[in-house]
């Protein structure tokens, strides 16, 4: 089975779930169709860049082609002209049996061409594509038009499938398969008492300021330290806030770090913090990979009742949950954790959850099974 993995940007180090598909799906029998290519190809895969420079004839065709795409498919980005012929030649040369689009926003672009070529196409819903994008009427229309063109679809959480269904977007061959984590690499280690960790882009839907203020309120002057891993527009404001709150000595901002460094931090950290919220533009999580990695590493996870997070974190069992924006509640839960005389039961439950629900080897096998049974029924 040869799979063409379609993604927006390649190569992106933090997209571990997509990179795993590219490297391992069906024994590594894959090629890549990307929107943009940054020049890195660590898996040495054949690739096609959709947004490469247009030929002169395609430039002339652009206004008509974009208008036709918007009218027929709900998107102006459907390949056309020389670009469509080049992509067709690539898929035929690679003898692609199936296309797996890693985001719904990519699937709407490729589904018409896939249908024309007789290549089954699946999509994976991961977060923004099934939350923020649903506020755009044209995008909802394009998703609805796409449903009969898909052979099936996957989602990292039931929350996203329910979100899509509420907008009249559903498919009979839909499956929840979390991105998962390599539970053989992400394992519990010797934990540093009082250690807290937050990982992710410093952006609105991660609400790092809430995490910082809540930690300061609960842990100021106590034997506790919080490390933030991640870059983004809210990094510098958070650094200033830590100074203002008088907890700068209890906070470390590392900036963005390689995935292996994140793993090392999780290995020795006791508590993982993620106060996810719904951003003003409607953007939500799907089911954060960082939380799945934290559970696998035996970290007590304190997070919010947001998107698919309650599908992973069971309040009082393997972690703790508060409502979005509940800063005082988040602070109280941090205090509760620090006051726990024994945190081992919750840490053990966290690891057990990851083993049962988020083993990415099992998840990959499940995706392969669905694809195989759909296009090669017994």
3D structure, described in words:
- This protein is an alpha/beta fold and 378 residues long.
- The chain has helices at residues 16-28, 56-73, 81-93, 104-117, 137-146, 158-165, 208-219, 235-244, 259-268, 289-296, 327-339, 344-357, 360-375; strands at 3-10, 30-37, 47-49, 98-101, 121-125, 152-155, 174-176, 192-199, 225-229, 251-255, 269-273, 300-304, 319-322.
- It has two domains: 3-180 and 359-375, Rossmann fold (3-Layer(aba) Sandwich), CATH 3.40.50; 192-357, Rossmann fold.
- The strands form two sheets. It has a seven-stranded parallel β-sheet, sandwiched between helices. Strands 10-9-8-11-12-13 form a six-stranded parallel β-sheet, with helices on both faces.
- Helix 7 (208-219) links the parallel strand 8 (192-199) and strand 9 (225-229).
- It is elongated, with a radius of gyration of 22 Å.
Structural class: alpha/beta
Average per-residue pLDDT, rounded, comes to 96
From N to C, what is the helix and strand string? Answer: EHEEHHEHEHEHEEHEHEHEHEEHHH
What is the CATH level 1 assignment of the largest domain?
Alpha Beta
- Order of strands, widest sheet: 3-2-1-4-5-6-7
**How is the main sheet built?**
7 strands, parallel
Low-confidence stretches: none
SS field, number of helical segments: 13
Under CATH, the homologous superfamily of the largest domain reads Glycogen Phosphorylase B
How many beta-strand elements?
13
Provide the domain count.
Answer: 2
* Overall geometry: elongated
Q: Determine the N-to-C terminus distance.
A: 15 Å
Q: Helicity level, as a percent range? A: 40-55%
The oligomeric state is: single chain
Gross CATH architecture of the largest domain: 3-Layer(aba) Sandwich
Which radius of gyration do the C-alpha atoms yield?
22 Å
CATH topology of the largest domain: Rossmann fold
């Amino acid at each position: 089975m040869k799979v063409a993995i379609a993604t927006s940007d390649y190569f992106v180090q933090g997209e571990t779930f997509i990179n795993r598909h590219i490297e391992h799906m069906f024994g590594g029998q894959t090629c890549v169709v990307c929107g943009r290519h940054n020049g890195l190809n660590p898996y040495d895969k054949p690739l096609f860049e959709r947004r490469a420079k247009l030929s002169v004839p395609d430039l002339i065709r652009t206004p008509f082609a974009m208008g036709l795409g918007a009218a027929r498919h709900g998107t102006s980005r459907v390949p056309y002209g020389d670009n469509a012929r080049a992509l067709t030649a690539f898929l035929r040369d690679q003898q692609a049996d199936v296309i797996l689009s890693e985001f719904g926003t990519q699937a709407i672009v490729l589904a018409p061409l896939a249908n024309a070529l007789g290549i089954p196409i699946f999509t994976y819903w991961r977060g923004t594509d099934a939350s923020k994008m649903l506020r755009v009427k044209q995008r909802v229309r394009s998703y609805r038009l796409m449903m009969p063109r898909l052979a099936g679809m996957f989602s990292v959480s039931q929350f996203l499938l329910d979100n899509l269904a509420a907008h009249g977007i559903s498919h009979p061959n839909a499956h929840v398969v979390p991105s998962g984590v390599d539970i053989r690499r992400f394992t519990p280690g010797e934990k540093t008492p009082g250690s807290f960790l937050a990982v992710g882009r410093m952006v609105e839907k991660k609400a790092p300021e809430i995490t910082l203020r809540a930690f300061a309120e609960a842990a100021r002057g106590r034997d506790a330290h919080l490390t933030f891993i991640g870059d983004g527009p809210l990094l510098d404001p958070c650094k200033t806030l830590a100074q203002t709150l008088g907890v700068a000595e209890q906070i470390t901002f590392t900036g963005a770090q390689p995935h292996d460094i994140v793993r090392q931090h999780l290995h020795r950290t006791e508590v993982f913090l993620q106060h996810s919220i719904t951003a003003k533009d409607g953007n939500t999580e799907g089911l954060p990979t960082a939380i799945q990695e934290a559970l696998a590493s035996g970290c007590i996870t304190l997070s919010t009742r947001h998107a698919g997070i309650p599908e992973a974190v069971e309040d009082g069992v393997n972690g703790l949950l508060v409502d979005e924006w509940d800063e005082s509640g988040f602070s109280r839960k941090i205090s509760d954790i620090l006051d726990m005389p024994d945190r081992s039961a919750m840490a053990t439950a966290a690891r057990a959850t990851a083993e049962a629900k988020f083993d990415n080897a099992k998840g990959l096998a499940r995706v392969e099974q669905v694809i195989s049974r759909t296009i090669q029924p017994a």
